Every structure is written in structure tokens, then in C-alpha cells.
Amino acid sequence: GVIVKALVMQMLNVPWQTLSGTEEYFRERPLSALTQQKLEPKDLNRAVLGRCLADIADFGGENLYLNCAKQVIDSLNIKVTEAHIDSTSFHYDGESYKQADSPIELKLGYSRDHRPELKQAITLMLADGQSRIPFYSKNVSGNVNDNRSFNDLILFAWSSIKEQFQALDYLVGDSSLCTADNFNSAKANNMHLVTRLPDKTKVAKDIFANNKIEDMTPVFEDDEESPLGKWCGTTTIGDETVHLLLVANPKLKTKKAATVTGHAEKELADVTAKIKKLSTKPCKCKADALKCITEIMDKCKLVTISNIQYEEIIKNVTRGRPKAGVTPETKVNAVKVTATVSIDEAKVAQKIEEEILYIIATNDLNRKWTMAELLSIYKRQSVIERCWRCCKNPKFFVDAIYLNKPSRIDALLWLMSLALLVYAGIEYKVRKTMADNGLT
Fold first, then answer.
1. Type and span of the H or E element at 358
2. Cβ contact 356:311 at 8 Å
3. Percentage of residues in the chain with pLDDT exceeding 70?
4. Bigger pLDDT: 147 or 378?
């Protein structure tokens, strides 16, 4: 525990320094006073820190973190009623090896760090919506997607979490949480979910098509800049019936317009390059050319292709100069394709309108929800994003992992999560004290 305390101090205070420099870091600091133990910097050498990580891994980071978080939550007199779930990835530059007793494997997968060529580990976390304190953390292998890891949490971890935080009632997440398996598992565990309905589902598309912003009312009645909302009845996800709330945020229109326009310009450049390639590297026949054009058009979302021209390149069947007075036999040797590619302004405008719309779903049918209550609990999902911003700060230097054993990497990521827990606990205590004393 003393070693962990020293490591957390270092992680929260020193930018750009890896934990391999712990002994050096504490040479100029009052280590005994800070840890309240008779320690010298040499007692925090790499061998000691390695054994510490091994001990953490042997105990199990998931249960250890839950126990620590419970003590923090209780000491601050916080009542946890809603858990916001999300995950992030940490890439690894080295070559790890398989370890039979490790809960994680470093593997290739979807990279949030935009480093798909590197192996990674994924950290799954729950945070309290009111206090912003992360109270559950688990590391999973780098190739596990959110749908699976969220479902595993509901099936295998929720009972333990609920045992520690008995007032916990809602699990809140983005569209990755909105799957039939998750709702079925939630039903089996008497859980309430609040999540976002994926925009690509048929139900969402029908709601977007059949509802106009003019028919929606302010969610927060006393706020002039309030988002707009409208109840859209119920639907079934898995075996669960869910309430649906359509939300529009006109304030985001300028921002979304810039984003969608950027996507349209990128698509314009990509499609133009593909059409140009059909001209410089022609197809063998018109059937192939038609197939290529059809495939390109099917993938177009914000651009349109017009004025398509097929130019046949004719070649003599036999080689050499034809005899005088003899018309040589010819064949189509290749087909060039030219076309005009342009941004479809109507599709862009429609996409912008859709981008400011989203649908919130919940399986809590007994509560008499107001639009403000349901939207507020969903919008607090940003608390988990704040946790990741802290961990992803380059000064935290967590992505510089100089370890080989997956179990020790798992323990190091646990240590990062613990440092975040300490940080969030201090922040909550400072803000509450300031509020109690009328300070800003």
C-alpha cells in the first residue's frame, strides 16, 4: 500500500516521466514524511516495483479497485445512483507474450488512439454521474468490442457492484450499450438502462423521417436555448419494451454543418480519385466498367455521379500492319470511364438535420419521466469522457509501457485508474468545500 501511495503521487505530479524513474524522482523529496513510513528512495527500485505489480495482478485488479473505490465513496458520503459506462484503449509499442494466468491479452483491435498497427489493451470504467468519481475499472483484451465487454459486465460483475453500491439503479451508456443482448441481460438482473438508440436502426430512421423539429417542444421550459424533445412511444429491443425520447439540439447546427461539409469534401476527393483511376487504368469490358461504377455509386453518401461516359478503346485482333485493301478485324480492348462528381447539397442538408437529432431509450417504464429528467441523466455521460481526457493527457505518459508481462501491464493500468480515482476524489472534495463556503 505504501508503494502504491508513492506511485500515485508520482503519476499525479510528474509530467513526462515513466515509473521506471521512481527511485530517482523521490531522491529530492521527503519520502518518509509523504508516506509516513521509514523509507529511502532505494526501497522503490525497479525490482520492488515489479513485485508490487505482480502482487496487484495476483489479487485481481477488478476487485481491488472496487474495494478502494467503495472506501473513497463512503468517506465522501456520496450516494451512487447512476453508473456511466465507457471504454478506451491504450496502445503498446513492445512485443508482449501470452500469459496463461493473465486476464488480458495485448492484441490488435479498434484503436481509439488511431494506432491500428499497434497491439493494445482496453480499460472499461464506470463513473458516478453526480460526483464524477470512477468507482469500477476493469481491463480487457485489445480485440474485445464494447458490445461484448458491456454485456460481460452486466452478466458477471453487476451483482458485485450492486452489493457495494446498493442505491445504484441506472446504467447509462452510448449506443454501444443499446443491443438486444444487453437489454435481455439487464432484464434478467432487474437493471434499468438509459442509452442512445443507434441512428442506423430502422426504428430510428422511421422516427427521423416522420417527425419535424417544428413539432417538438423545449425540454427545459425555463431555458431559452433548451434542446427540443418529443416522446415517440415505445419499441422492443430484445425482450424489453423501452420508452423513446427524440431530442434535437439546434445549437449544434453550425458545428454539425462544418463536420458534415468536411465529410462531403473528403468523399468528393475519394470518389473523384476512383473515377480518375477508371480513366487512367481502363476496365477490360463495358460490363466490368458498369460493375465498377455501380459499386462506387452504392457507397456514395453525400456526393452524386453524373454525365457518365464509356469510351471503348478499339484494337486490331491481329498484330502488325494490315494488308492493303483489307479491313482488319477489331475488338474492344478496354473501356475508359469518365464522369462528373459533385457534392449533393440536398443530401448534405438532410444529413445536417439528422446530425442534430438523436433518440434516448430506457427500459424503466414505471417511472413517470419528464423529458428533462431523461435527457439530464443521459447527458451526464460526459463525466466518463472527462475521466478519459485525464488519462489520455500526454503528460500522464501511460502509453509508454515498458513491460512485457500482460499481468503486469494489467496492474499498471489498474494503477492509472487508481490515480484517477484519487484525482477525482480530491476534485470533488475541493469543489464541495468551495460550494459550502460560497467560493467560486
1. strand 357-362
2. no
3. 90
4. 378
Per-residue pLDDT band for 194 (boundaries 50, 70, 90) equals: very high
Average pLDDT in the chain: 85
Give the per-residue pLDDT at 19.
Answer: 67
The span from the CA of 297 to the CA of 286, in Å, is 16
**Rounded to the nearest 5 degrees, what angle is found at the Cα of 414, between the Cα atoms of 380 and 400?**
100
- Among candidate residues 2, 11, 1, 6, the one with its CA nearest the CA of residue 29: 6
In the predicted model, is pLDDT for residue 250 greater than 90? Answer: no
**394, amino acid identity:** P
Indicate the SS3 state at residue 335.
strand
All residues at 6 or more sequence positions from 338 whose CB lies less than 8 Å from its CB, including other chains? 275, 279, 307, 308, 309, 311
What integer pLDDT is reported at residue 402 of this predicted model?
60
pLDDT band at 361 (very low <50, low <70, confident <90, very high): very high
Count CB neighbours of 301 within 10 A: 11
Contact 274, 293 (CB under 8 A): no
Burial, 16: exposed, middle or buried (Cβ in 10 Å; 0-12, 13-18, 19+)? exposed
Contact 161, 168 (CB under 8 A): yes
Judge whether 234 and 362 are in contact, CB under 8 Å.
no
Polymer length in residues for the chain: 440
Rounded CA gap, 282 and 336, in Å?
5
Cβ count near 114 (within 10 Å): 6
Please state which of the ranges 14-28, 32-46, 266-280 shows the lowest mean pLDDT. 14-28
Which tens digits make up the pLDDT trace of 89-106?
Answer: 777 776 766 766 777 677
Phi, psi of 22 (to 5 degrees): -65, -45
Taking the alpha carbons at both ends of the chain, their separation in whole angstroms is 35
Residues near 371 by Cβ (< 8 Å), separated by ≥ 6?
A: 219, 229, 231, 245
* DSSP string across 169-214: -EEE--GGG-SHHHHHHHHHTT-EEEEEEPTTSHHHHHHHHH--GG
For residues 107 and 100, give the distance between their C-alpha atoms in angstroms, rounded to a whole number. Answer: 15
DSSP-derived letter for residue 117 is T
| Class of residue 385 by CB neighbours under 10 A (exposed 0-12, middle 13-18, buried 19+) | middle
User: How many beta carbons lie within 10 A of that of residue 18, not counting itself?
Assistant: 13
The 8-class DSSP code of residue 290 comes to H
Q: Do residues 259 and 305 lie in contact, with contact meaning Cβ atoms separated by under 8 Å?
A: no
pTM for the predicted model, two decimal places: 0.79
The half-sphere exposure of 190 on its side-chain side, counting CA atoms within 13 A, is 4
How far is it, in rounded angstroms, from Cα 110 to Cα 240?
Answer: 29
DSSP 8-state class, residue 266 = H
